Amino acid sequence: xxxxxxxxxxxxxxxxxxxxxxxxxxxxxxxxxxxxxxxxxxxxxxxxxxxxxxxxxxxxxxxxxxxxxxxxxxxxxxxxxxxxxxxxxxxxxxxxxxxxxxxxxxxxxxxxxxxxxxxxxxxxxxxxxxxxxxxxxxxxxxxxxxxxxxxxxxxxxxxxxxxxxxxxxxxxxxxxxxxxxxxxxxxxxxxxxxxxxxxxxxxxxxxxxxxxxxxxxxxxxxxxxxxxxxxxxxxxxxxxxxxxxxxxxxxxxxxxxxxxxxxxxxxxxxxxxxxxxxxxxxxxxxxxxxxxxxxxxxxxxxxxxxxxxxxxxxxxxxxxxxxxxxx
Length: 327
What we know:
The chain is α/β, with parallel strands linked by helices. It is built from eleven helices and eleven strands. Strand 10 and strand 11 form a beta hairpin. Helix 6 packs parallel to helix 11. The longest helix is centred in the middle third of the chain and has 22 residues.
């Protein structure tokens, strides 16, 4: 690969997140502003292996800032896990004179990118695009704010039904390894209990809390459960409650992939624009093997090895606050 960057490729990889299109737009237009040519590779690392790409001009990214999903499509690549797959990807980049990559994604994306850099020395900068907000090196990831607002809107509506019927709703949100959506979503919606992967679920404590709430004649109860909760998720929690208190009218709702979709919030659009533009600026300056994030309102670089391996610590004070406010 040449040291002088003229042509860059963009990929979106892993789970989609609202704001990815806004980021593609920012990368493309900032690159063009800097005199670079831009190529979008389809379906993440698979696009590199299969040599599926399209040139991106300013007009190609018009009218996408408000769209959810990703115009470049996304996928997880089994082939890229092998050296043969990565070699094929590299050969295609060389054949097409691609000098550097910008990869929008999460933990798996950055892990693969870091290996690719070590083997073939191609400059890659990552941008955190995941609703889970679990990457070290940025206060927020692209898509997190939108997903959080989607959860709040859904739980508010379910609360109306719960109050009307005097029901207990156990609501499962995304978060296999991290409970950021559940924690902040639970506080924002006034959940009576929040169960997250970062802490052990003491089911007896939860049952005691529900018993107290029942004695207080609360009109409704909401339990927000991250999918990675160690008790086994919303259905397991609901089963335990029903076994202990058969009189509860319980409903389980799994919000699922609705959290990934929809038009990105203003906060996600601005964040995506800042990170997309920043990625190009850092590439031009010779940076690689790093993720660009926003910490305390300033752009910051974090090595892939740290961003991918050291998950952000959850806020214990917020969990304590949730416990207090559920009294």
